[in-house]
Amino acid sequence: MIYGYNGCDHLEPVLEALLAAGNRVDPHPQVTGPFRPSQGGMYCPLIDAIDFAVIADIPRVPDVAFDPDDDAVFCHSCWLPIYGGENLRRSREAWERATGKPFQPNTDR
Ligand SMILES: [Zn+2]
User: Fold this and answer.
1) CA 60–ligand 1 middle distance (angstroms)
2) Is residue 75 within 8 Å of 12, Cβ to Cβ?
3) What is the pLDDT of residues 47-95, one digit of tens each?
4) Cα of 102 to ligand 1 centre, how many Å?
5) How far is the CA of 11 from the centre of ligand 1 (A)?
6) What's the predicted TM-score (pTM) here?
7) What is the C-alpha separation between 46 and 39, in angstroms, rounded?
8) Under a CB-based contact definition with an 8 Å cutoff, are residues 10 and 77 in contact?
């Protein structure tokens, strides 16, 4: 059981295994649980890339999809993603290319 867990039941064992293996949730100043709000809905940002070998054998519902190419795990039942650090780094770079500005994290939401 993850303290303050605020995601869906389907993703908790996956996240628990990733954290036990050493990954960390990128902290948010206003949110205690691992998931945080955004304009696109709730998501869980991890600092390191997702180690899919760690979660390969975890029993999970069919709606939980592993996407190593995207460095993400997604619950299609609840529409909740866990993003690895590599996914978030690519997103920030794409945003910077598109806007021509340095990425500034918005901690207000
Ligand atoms: Zn779910």
Assistant:
1) 10
2) no
3) 999 999 999 999 878 899 999 999 999 999 999 999 999 999 999 999 9
4) 33
5) 6
6) 0.90
7) 18
8) yes
| 85: number of Cβ within 10 Å | 17
Residue type, 70: D
Spacing, Cα 107 to ligand 1 middle (Å): 25
CA of 97 to the centre of ligand 1 (A): 32
Separation between Cα atoms, residue 7 and residue 4, nearest integer Å: 9
- For residue 10, the CA-to-ligand 1 centroid distance in Å is 4
Instruction: Give ∠ CA 67-71-76 in degrees, rounded to 5.
Output: 45
Distance CA 97, CA 47 (A): 22
DSSP letter assigned to residue 72 = E
